[in-house]
């Protein structure tokens, strides 16, 4: 996972169907914009689109379909060439943001607020670790590699929350993406396991600190799906096969399902919830 130079995913689901289950990947997908959905009129920022396979894209698509107005971000101009048509279809400005570049996150939030006026929800869907660290053992991880993985994949959420909270004047929602490897040691997930554990803990602390402002914070924990980041994890195909075989629903989850849960957590329907890690994994987490 998390090697930006890795080739994009070429996976199909184990049943042979295309990985994206109906989401239009190439060309200009047409997206209906609801004016009366659960997120009608809500202003959102979605961080972390690499292409139309990205979980961030699934979240953006569902939020838009439920009526939200969006600002989107991708890493750099290379990513922009893949993402721009999809941002255009969602009628959303697309900005560059590399969280390792000082000031990038601040500029992103300033530009999102300049566009929207305020923010109602933010989706943080980024993670990265140096490939040699990810493919090595956690025992042998270097302090520098671990720290970079933590900064990009975990602390950037705290920074995003700090920057966005003052603009969530009527309360808001902050959602990040975790994985079951946070709470159980899963083969080949390596140092991303401890990093995701820290992320889930961070969600609880942010929920406590921002709760008095009416800001709710969650981690969504999807089962494995083929994305560019996932293609950096060794033997990811077999991880997906095992997840499908083990899951009560006997299948993988879809981008739409991950996006729909995320959209729900940003809606008034979830107003009594904060501080949770919520699985959307076809039930895989419930089975030993
Ligand atoms: N794909 C899965 O099976 C799966 C399962 C559970 C959780 N997740 C999580 O979902 C999130 C999104 O990953 P994805 O699977 O959609 O893959 P993806 O490759 O589509 O998205 C990862 C994003 O992280 C961004 N990123 C990496 N370094 C960055 C940096 N320095 N600054 C800004 N952005 C940076 C990439 O540009 C990319 O847009 C990650 O947190 C990942 O851990 C993925």
From TrEMBL:
This protein's name: Enoyl-[acyl-carrier-protein] reductase [NADH]
Family as reported in the entry's similarity comment: Belongs to the short-chain dehydrogenases/reductases (SDR) family. FabI subfamily.
This protein's record includes keyword Protein biosynthesis: no
Documented EC number(s): 1.3.1.9
Organism: Rhodoferax aquaticus
Binding site residues for NAD(+): 48, 54-55, 126, 196, 225-229
Active site (UniProt): 179 (proton acceptor), 189 (proton acceptor)
Pfam families according to UniProt: adh_short_C2
Disordered: annotated segments: 1-20
Binding annotation for substrate: 129
A GO molecular function held by the record: enoyl-[acyl-carrier-protein] reductase (NADH) activity
Lineage: Bacteria, Pseudomonadati, Pseudomonadota, Betaproteobacteria, Burkholderiales
């Amino acid at each position: 996972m998390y090697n930006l130079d890795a080739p994009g995913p070429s996976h199909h689901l184990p049943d042979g169907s295309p990985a994206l289950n109906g989401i239009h990947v190439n060309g200009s997908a047409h997206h209906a914009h609801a004016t009366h959905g659960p997120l009608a009129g809500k202003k959102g920022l979605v961080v972390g689109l690499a292409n139309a396979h990205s979980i961030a894209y699934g979240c953006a698509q569902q939020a838009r379909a439920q009526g939200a107005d969006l600002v989107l971000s991708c890493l750099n101009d290379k990513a922009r060439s893949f993402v721009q048509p999809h941002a255009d279809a969602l009628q959303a400005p697309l900005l560059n943001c590399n969280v390792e570049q000082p000031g990038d996150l601040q500029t992103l939030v300033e530009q999102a607020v300049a566009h929207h006026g305020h923010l109602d929800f933010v989706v943080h869907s980024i993670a990265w670790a140096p490939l040699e660290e990810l493919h090595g053992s956690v025992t042998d991880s270097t302090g520098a590699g671990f720290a970079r993985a933590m900064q990009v994949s975990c602390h950037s959420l705290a920074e995003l929350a700090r920057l966005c909270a003052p603009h969530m004047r009527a309360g808001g929602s902050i959602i990040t993406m975790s994985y079951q490897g946070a709470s159980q040691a899963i083969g080949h997930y390596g140092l991303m396991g401890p990093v995701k554990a820290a992320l889930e803990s961070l969600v609880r602390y942010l929920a406590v600190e921002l709760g008095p402002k009416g800001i709710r914070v969650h981690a969504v924990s999807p089962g494995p799906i083929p994305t560019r980041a996932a293609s950096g994890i060794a033997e990811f195909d077999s991880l997906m096969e095992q997840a499908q075989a083990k899951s009560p629903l006997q299948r993988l989850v879809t981008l739409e399902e991950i996006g729909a849960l995320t959209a729900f957590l940003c809606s008034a329907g979830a107003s009594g919830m904060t501080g949770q890690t919520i699985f959307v994994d076809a039930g895989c987490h419930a089975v030993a």
